[in-house]
């Protein structure tokens, strides 16, 4: 007598790859959306403020130095950690009906993994909740929130071997 064993159907393990793919698509979509919003607001004549360029964060500081805060947008959170010894390249703000959007780009000579580790440690230390963290081909995305602010950090190796640190924030506008 032959005994038949019931075989479970094999389900391919695509979930981790799918999550990475979806997060990469989301990241690119957000970047494109922010760029499109900035372009639209520029053409529509709304307030868009470019930031100053090439301000260096003091080595070892890791937080916004009080004397240099005027180089970042005025509403940039004072308690958001800045990567030490990074160079501010550009910043933009735009305002909608419900949120103010801030986008800031820094560069650093440190490896992307080192920058990622810094933010994964410093954000919670300063009261920010890390919602998710993804890696795809040496690039990292960290989403976070605190009170009325949410956003994400994109970390990747850019031109000339420098690590690019892109921070995009959405800050709720509170009407009084």
What is the molecular shape?
A: globular
Alpha-beta classification: alpha+beta
Percent range of helical residues: 25-40%
Terminal residue distance: 82 Å
Radius of gyration: 20 Å
Number of domain modules? 1
Number of strands: 8
List keywords for this structure.
single chain, 2 helices, alpha+beta, 8 strands
Give a structural overview:
The chain has one domain (15-172). Helix content is 25%, strand content 34%. The chain contains 2 helices and 8 strands, in the order αββββαββββ. Strands 1, 2, 3, 4, 5, 6, 7 and 8 form an 8-stranded antiparallel β-sheet that branches.
Quick rundown:
By secondary structure, the protein is of the alpha+beta class.
């Amino acid at each position: 007598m032959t005994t038949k064993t019931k075989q479970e159907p094999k389900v391919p393990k695509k979930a981790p790859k799918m999550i990475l793919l979806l997060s990469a698509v989301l990241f690119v979509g957000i970047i494109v959306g922010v760029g499109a919003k900035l372009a639209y607001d520029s053409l529509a004549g709304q307030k868009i403020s470019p930031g100053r360029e090439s301000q260096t964060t003091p080595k070892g500081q890791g937080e916004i130095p009080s004397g240099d805060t005027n180089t970042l947008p005025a509403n940039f959170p004072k308690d958001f950690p800045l990567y030490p010894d990074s160079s501010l390249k550009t910043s933009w703000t735009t305002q909608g009906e419900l949120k103010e959007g801030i986008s800031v780009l820094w560069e650093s000579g440190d490896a992307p993994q080192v920058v990622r580790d810094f933010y994964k440690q410093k954000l919670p230390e300063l009261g920010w909740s890390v919602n998710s963290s993804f890696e795809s081909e040496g690039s990292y995305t960290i989403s976070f929130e605190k009170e009325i602010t949410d956003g994400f950090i994109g970390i990747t190796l850019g031109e000339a071997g420098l690590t690019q640190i892109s921070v995009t924030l959405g800050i709720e506008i509170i009407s009084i």
